[in-house]
Amino acid sequence: MISHRRPRPLTTALLTAALAAASLAGCSDSDSEADAGDLASQAPTPTSTPSLPVEREERTQVDSYVALGDSFTAAPLITTPQAGNGCLRSTRNYPTLVAEALDAHLEDRSCSGAETGDLTGPQRTFAGTVPAQLGALEADTDLVTMGIGGNDFTIFGTLVRCVELGAEDPDGAPCTTAYGEDGVAALERQVARIGDRLASAIAEVRDRAPDAEVVVVGYPRVIPPAASCPELLPLASGDRALLAGLNRRLADVERRVAGEAEVAYVDLYAASKGHDICSDEPWVNGRSTVPGIGLAYHPLADGQQAAAQLVLDALEQD
To answer: Among this protein's residues, is 298 annotated catalytic?
Structure first.
């Protein structure tokens, strides 16, 4: 069993605050409306509703599909989220698109703010508590996708902290300095430990759904190593290397773990080259939380469509 209970990460605080603001979008608070307007003007223009023009008869036969993951799977706010439990799953996230293409029954347990420990234990959200994600697995489950790990040890929370510090010294490296050599080394060790947790999670999935095709879906390229776009990603110039390095390291670790476990891996990091926050065609939103487009620093609709297509391609290769 996977068990590591811990305080909620900084990313969850970002989710809660941003989504509370988003929930007020229809209210009459003039300051909130003005802020939302400013953010919307900086956000990417939404594209058409994601769809996948695939021939179902050419696709792998899948009847039962379970999606596990965090907010990069749930894709909060790219459409109106499913109501009720605080997981903020979009109705057009990549699991939904994959299920439609395969004509499969989907049990989507992805939840914003989830860590690997939430696969086997209940997760607290801003709206209550949701059951362990692995509870959806059955012996006859055909397909399981997993996209999780970035919230463990507040790895993604590091981005939020660095953005806050960047406002104080945009031309320096305030976040790297704040962590220091020992702190940066600790972050790198924590990413390695995420790999251990992911390996345990894959083993648990196999125990519960022994005949399922398991696909690990990695994280996209969020931070460009060199390009600067302070209106979308207000990082200090000297801190981009730290964040880009953690982004790359997490992708490397999850790729390795999937290979060692002999399960399929969707390499969103490689596929999203040229689609980071600062690119002309981003798959990840910048600092602007805008309902109907996406949560700050979270997936956009184009990224979810790309992820869905890559999952389908991975199934065809097996």
So the answer is: yes
